[in-house]
Amino acid sequence: MKLILLGAPGAGKGTVAKMLTAIDGSVQISTGDILRGAVAAGTDLGKEAEGYMKRGDLVPDSLIMGIMEKRLQDNDCKKGFLLDGFPRTIPQAEALTELLKKLGITLDMAVSIDVPRDVILDRLCTRRTCANGDCQAIYNVKSNPPKKEGICDKCGSPVVQREDETETAISHRLETYNEKTAPLIGFYAKTGLLKTVTGTSSDAVVAAIKSSLGI
Ligand code: AMP
User: Which of 8, 147, 158, 193 has its CA 20 to 30 A from that of 138?
Assistant: First the structure.
């Protein structure tokens, strides 16, 4: 499947993407994970992106398009891909349309995951992430804590609160979402690709996506 997952930070895009990869081997492409990996590795990309990310601002479109142009041509994308956190601005969506045309790729759907704001705020404040840039497993102190407090079940690295998941950064990220990313819902509605799923359970969101795709 070739899907875009739209939704505010904390809407569950990453969890839904991971569940969908198990269905047909499509790969999850999270620009946030790629950027955090680059920051942890101290690469030039990481150094450039770090300040924007800490503040909860978007990284410039040109950097993101450079990443995505390469990533979408990797062999593992042939089976399909789930775009998680990209596109995030109208210029990114326009550039993606051009890029996909150039690569001869057709999208199946743009799924907008719509979750109430209070649920999102609660999730973001209680989310914890594995600090290992190659793992980045996600936990939640209330609903899905690691077996040993503060230690990742998968790789044994520390599980931490992301620097952009303090209350100030979260409210800034939500404002950025409303201003820059929410207009993508209208953009994809016009193309006929939009499917809106309302729900707080990732299982229900995955079921709705499967039914829309007829699988
Ligand atoms: P995420 O993990 O998707 O919440 O992304 C974390 C941070 O990475 C965002 O707050 C942005 O600073 C940056 N980021 C991720 N994806 C994008 C994108 N498509 N465009 C611009 N910045 C991005």
Answer: 193
For atom 19 of ligand 1, the residue with the nearest CA is: 86
User: What pTM value is reported for the model?
Assistant: 0.92
**H helical segments located in the chain:** 13-24, 31-41, 44-55, 61-71, 90-103, 117-126, 167-176, 183-191, 202-213
C-alpha closest to that of 8 among 154, 118, 107: 118
Answer whether 59 contacts ligand 1 (Cβ < 6 A).
yes
Distances (CA, A) of 213 to 148, 180, 209: 39, 28, 6
Does ligand 1 come within 6 angstroms of the Cβ of 123? no
Query: pLDDT tens digit string along 142-167?
Result: 999 999 999 999 999 999 999 888 88
Distance 53 CA to ligand 1 centre (A): 7
Task: State how far Cα 189 lies from the chain centre.
Answer: 20
Q: Domain with 200 in it: what CATH number?
A: 3.40.50.300
- Is residue 77 helix, strand or coil? helix
Q: Give residue 11's domain range.
A: 2-26+79-213
